[in-house]
Amino acid sequence: MTEQNPAPEQNQGREQGMKPATAAKKLGIYLPATPEEFRAGPISRERFQALQSTPPEWLVTLRREGPHPKDVVARKLGVSTSGLARAEQNEALTTEQIQALLAAPPEWLVRERATQARVRAENARVNARNAERADRDRD
Question: What is the pTM of this model?
Fold first, then answer.
């Protein structure tokens, strides 16, 4: 019988790493815009922590100027990632492109922001109702 998971002793000394895509997602950056050395192989925990604590210039610039991944684009535009998909906005956008959309919002952005506002209002209403019920149940 073959052992699929090595014993903990066998893992000692081997550094765990994460895939570049996972590291990029955790850093909030668009993987194709990262340097080749970042995409080349696993990112060690130590290297990842260093990227977080003292980001290199390329990371600072990428976070500031983009291009940004969809979840960051959605957040900056005030819509959901589903809203971006409905509007067929599937490309990574730069900060400049996002600012241009916010300055002169197209119809799809106005519609999706209104949808997002309704969703947030409904979530707030449900949370308030649930809190009220929880207070009543405690009494």
Answer: 0.75
